[in-house]
Amino acid sequence: xxxxxxxxxxxxxxxxxxxxxxxxxxxxxxxxxxxxxxxxxxxxxxxxxxxxxxxxxxxxxxxxxxxxxxxxxxxxxxxxxxxxxxxxxxxxxxxxxxxxxxxxxxxxxxxxxxxxxxxxxxxxxxxxxxxxxxxxxxxxxxxxxxxxxxxxxxxxxxxxxxxxxxxxxxxxxxxxxxxxxxxxxxxxxxxxxxxxxxxxxxxxxxxxxxxxxxxxxxxxxxxxxxxxxxxxxxxxxxxxxxxxxxxxxxxxxxxxxxxxxxxxxxxxxxxxxxxxxxxxxxxxxxxxxxxxxxxxx
Length: 297
What we know:
By secondary structure, the chain is α/β, with parallel strands linked by helices. Helices cover 44% and strands 18% of the residues. The two termini are 30 Å apart. Belongs to the class I fructose-bisphosphate aldolase family.
């Protein structure tokens, strides 16, 4: 019944998904924004201990619960550790009512044809078996679109769906994330190409399969409405993509049926130097704001 309950929770959409999945490359920046400079740790192991402590602090805050936070995306090392004396995925679901997801991609390949594909994932099957055993509900994988390149965008979407089918084969729910860089001049054109490619691949899925989509907030409100309504889509979530929390929330509220899956925008204003009371209050305010934007559309 757990999978059914988790699917129903994600489908209901009355909240948002927290992205706590900063990887090795993005961890120093995440820690710096949290008030911990690179000079304060001397090894990669110490760095990952510090970022896990940050994630655990977030997950154990009173406001971080299933009332407004539907799910949380974890980094692999977070899945392998404990929060509150329990394996992380179990803690999230059993103690907080938050559906656990796992980031599975291994980073981006070099830019080519206006996009960055995902690096090969030869050990994905083994990771998916571990994830399923750990109680993970779904996965997330990210590609990047830097230009309105028809062939590049098709390559991104084709790769995402190919890997999604592998994930579905393990009984897990894939979040497909073809991020469109917010600063590119032809962002709207790239979004039009992406929409067409996504619809083509969604239409080709079997009737009994669904995926989730994680997309950059579009230039035109409700531009992705056909994806929100598509029967092969369990949920459409939005990344903050470098927008401030205020701007990301404003854009999100204009898009009916899309909920947040913010990382940097969620942790904006949080600091390792804050007392627990200050930290919990700041996080509660962020959760309230993002939740409201998620249900406003």
